[in-house]
Amino acid sequence: MNFNEKYKKIRHLIQKEINIIEEKMVTNINIHEPLQTSVTNFLKAPSKRIRPLISILYLKACGEDPTDKQLEVLTLVELVHNASLIHDDIIDESTIRRGIKTISAEFNNKLGVITGDYILSIVLEKLIQINNTEITKMFAKTIKQMTIGEINQYFERFKLGTLESYLEKTQDKTAYLFETALICPALLSKTTHNLKKISKLGLSIGTAFQIRDDILNFTQNDQLKPTKNDITEGIYNAPIILGDKSENYTSGIEKTKVLLNNYIQSAKNIINELPENQYKTALEEFLELLINV
After folding, report:
1. Is the pLDDT of residue 222 over 50?
2. Cα separations (Å) of 130 from 77, 156, 186, 290?
3. What InterPro entries does this protein map onto (predicted)?
């Protein structure tokens, strides 16, 4: 089985919860047509929903069935992610996302910016209703760091940074939202969780996920995402930073795979402490999917 087939098998375990989240995502969209339909279609377009997936699997591995409030928080995580994608598509001048036209391509950049902002406003509104200060702080920090990551990346274009600066950018742009997806439902749990370990798990998986994506940018042909596209944009990620300056980047890719494995192992060490059940097994299988690049 390929990645998508294996991932679908893992996701099947929690498809009921994913369906609820996907329905919640579009419930509060109420804007002018035809933008209403376009945004709804964008949010409903086939997506892996990786952030809620790992969170729900973790809760279930701990013996918890996610409450409606926990699923609401995970819906907000997905809305933040999708708002960032709409903004990313403007920055990257992308015309296709998930097999359909991007909001900015279908309309224009102005509406793209406003649409992303509108989705974030829904997140703020819902956070007020959830009324949990720690969760609100977590979302505020994450959104701020995502923005800082984009700003720093812009000003560091065409500069060969350090591995440390790359990992900091990776945490800002990607890993903090994974951490939020794991921490916030735990904050709503009746069970006492080790938040420090959950934080490390989220950051480890989020960082690994981005490192894997950066490797695939060199090795995978995808018409929707041209190989080595980041290089032409002046964005130098781990395979270049760790490379030997040769044009085929083989050395850098292999060293980046070692880096990826380190973060996967960090996540495995935490998951190993969970009770033995099908959800723990699914988390382990998911990590194995990330390793295979």
Report:
1. no
2. 13, 38, 14, 33
3. Isoprenoid_synthase_dom_sf, Polyprenyl_synt, Polyprenyl_synt_CS
Query: DSSP letters of 147-216?
Result: HHHHHHHHHTTT----HHHHHHHHIIIIIHHHHHHHHHHHHT-SS---HHHHHHHHHHHHHHHHHHHHHH
251 exposed, middle or buried (CB, 10 Å; 0-12, 13-18, 19+)? Answer: middle
Per the structure block, which two tokens stand in for 277? 């059940």
Question: Would you state the structure tokens that stand for residue 281, as one six-digit string?
Answer: 């097994």
pLDDT tops 80 at residue 245: no
**What proportion of the chain, given as a percentage, has pLDDT over 70?**
96
- At 190, the pLDDT band (50, 70, 90 cuts) reads confident
- Name all contacts of 187-194 with Cβ < 8 Å and 24+ positions apart: 187/132, 187/134, 187/135, 187/138, 188/67, 188/69, 188/70, 188/73, 188/132, 188/135, 189/59, 189/64, 189/70, 191/62, 191/63, 191/64, 193/62
Cα end-to-end span (Å), the chain = 14
**pLDDT-derived band of residue 2, with 50, 70 and 90 as boundaries?**
confident
Type of residue at 39 = V
Domain ranges of the chain: 3-291
Please state the rounded mean pLDDT for residues 178-189: 98
Cβ pair 18, 52 in contact under 8 A: yes
